[in-house]
Amino acid sequence: MAASTSSLISTSKDLREFLSTIESDNSLYLDLEGKSLSRDGTIALVTMLIHPQKVTRVVDVLTLGKSAFEIESVEGRSLKSILEDHEIPKYVWDVRNDADALWAHFQVALGGVTDIQLLENASRPDWIDKTRLCGLDKAIQYDLKLGFKNRERWLRTKREVRNLMSKDIFSERPLAPSTLQYCVNDVAHLPALQKFYMDRINPTWLVKAHKESKRRLADARSPEYKPQSPGKALGPWGGVSTTKLTLEEMDDREYEDFLWDLEYDEQEDEFDYWDDDVRCSADVDDFGGAFDSCWDKY
């Protein structure tokens, strides 16, 4: 999904027009970017994919400031009211620091969210342990069939932008095309991932995923929430696995991931499939916890 300058919303007029396109029966796929995204950092950008229209926009919170959440459409809806509306389904990959930052900086109580990271964990087949959470990059690697060219293009943008993250590139204006593409990329495959996990999850685990999504939202707004806690790499249900892989199956899977790590993983990758578990255990979307939980999504 290619980004264009029209993907970026940095004026009141453009924001009003965009808000008017969101219907009550739409689903929203979200991702936030910023410096140390959390109560301890900043929010620079909010990326939204409207489904089923497949329209993606990046709201420039750094430029618009508080008005990004207060400006109303002709229908009287603001970004704040839409994000808080429990009747509009929203999907996020690891919502915790996103919800924390929205509440701490703009008093936006994100609602109606299903955390796709939890859907992945809850829907794992019996032979896959649930101890560690999976990251977005590994989910796309293992669970989607993008085709070589599309996957390489997606990964190349990831690598290019990550190499510049120490410079707080999400706060640079004008926003670099590669940075804008990075934002668009982070939501582009969320609908496909959500469908994949919904197709394989059973009703009991779906209820658990929904309950845990609500708990994550509540915890993120609590005074005790720790945005950079190492414990965030762990799943909420522990090691629930009833089937063991054969040694040959385990060797095949670990070797495949080892080759992936050699080519793609960041040198500061704190947890990964090869190091810690027979399944995804952290996000290559993760940047070692050094800068930002929006790229440090355990």
UniProtKB/TrEMBL annotation:
GO biological process, one term: nucleobase-containing compound metabolic process
GO molecular function: 3'-5' exonuclease activity; nucleic acid binding
Entries under Gene3D superfamilies matching the protein: Ribonuclease H-like superfamily/Ribonuclease H (3.30.420.10)
TM stretches of this protein: none
Cited InterPro entries: 3'-5'_exonuclease_dom, RNaseH-like_sf, RNaseH_sf
Superkingdom to which the source organism belongs: Eukaryota
3'-5' exonuclease domain sequence ranges: 9-193
Name of protein: 3'-5' exonuclease domain-containing protein
UniProt source species: Phomopsis amygdali
